[in-house]
Amino acid sequence: MHLEVTQLYKQFATKRGPLVALKDINLHIEEGEFVCAVGASGSGKSTLLRMIAGLETPSSGDVRVDGMRVTGPGADRGMVFQSYTLYPWMNIAENVGFGLKLQGVSAAQRKQRVAYYLEVVGLSKFAQALPKELSGGMKQRVAIARALASQPKILLMDEPFGALDVQTKETMQQFLLQLWEQTKTSILMITHDVEEAVFLSQRIYVLTSHPGTVRTEIEINLPRNRTYQIKRQPIFQDYRDRVMAHLRDEVEDVALV
């Protein structure tokens, strides 16, 4: 398996005592696969992604990429956050190439790779612009280009379109599908938007809350080349309803506790 998460458990110390954020998380991603994880607030989605990225340490359990255990951040995993996290004093090309510079990539190689990924995300004309000159959707494209520039095996995305307006969000979703098809990069994306998860992914993990666990796994058998017309088809509605049913069950289970 490309990415394998086994028996992942995360506990935080609080004033009221130990808080279990994640318990017995088991999931995997095959090479070139697009997977989403959905869950309500309190399901530990972002904590899970941060542990896979190596930004948080599990209390117990295992995260492996191509058989190698994750012990910290690494170039094999690229991270895209909801906030754009761009450096405002750097132009777009410098932002995209910043990680490569830290890795010791030569100036000539950086220039070539930055130019390539700016072209991939359609922002070559804005290489010398500052982040403040770009729209929200364009800033997120820069963040994605920066993550891809290190040529990671897996792209980790934490609700990357959550701060965008509806129209821009839909445009970015279509863009992400095209980018995935073009780069063949494996993607694990966290989202609370069920329709977004069904539209983008090949499989969906539905997470419970308090603590976060995997409630179920749903395979999405839709064409790879998806357009927004597919959202009007009955099969799309059926998938969305299945995911929503699991999330509603989760809310009802919590209410009964």
TrEMBL record:
<protein>
    <recommendedName>
        <fullName>ABC-type quaternary amine transporter</fullName>
        <ecNumber>7.6.2.9</ecNumber>
    </recommendedName>
</protein>
<dbReference type="InterPro" id="IPR003439">
    <property type="entry name" value="ABC_transporter-like_ATP-bd"/>
</dbReference>
<dbReference type="InterPro" id="IPR003593">
    <property type="entry name" value="AAA+_ATPase"/>
</dbReference>
<keyword id="KW-0813">Transport</keyword>
<dbReference type="GO" id="GO:0016887">
    <property type="term" value="F:ATP hydrolysis activity"/>
</dbReference>
<dbReference type="GO" id="GO:0015418">
    <property type="term" value="F:ABC-type quaternary ammonium compound transporting activity"/>
</dbReference>
<dbReference type="Pfam" id="PF00005">
    <property type="entry name" value="ABC_tran"/>
</dbReference>
<comment type="similarity">
    <text>Belongs to the ABC transporter superfamily. Nitrate/nitrite/cyanate uptake transporter (NitT) (TC 3.A.1.16) family.</text>
</comment>
<dbReference type="InterPro" id="IPR017871">
    <property type="entry name" value="ABC_transporter-like_CS"/>
</dbReference>
<dbReference type="GO" id="GO:0005886">
    <property type="term" value="C:plasma membrane"/>
</dbReference>
<keyword id="KW-0067">ATP-binding</keyword>
<keyword id="KW-0547">Nucleotide-binding</keyword>
<feature type="domain" description="ABC transporter">
    <location>
        <begin position="3"/>
        <end position="234"/>
    </location>
</feature>
<dbReference type="InterPro" id="IPR027417">
    <property type="entry name" value="P-loop_NTPase"/>
</dbReference>
<dbReference type="InterPro" id="IPR050166">
    <property type="entry name" value="ABC_transporter_ATP-bind"/>
</dbReference>
<dbReference type="GO" id="GO:0005524">
    <property type="term" value="F:ATP binding"/>
</dbReference>
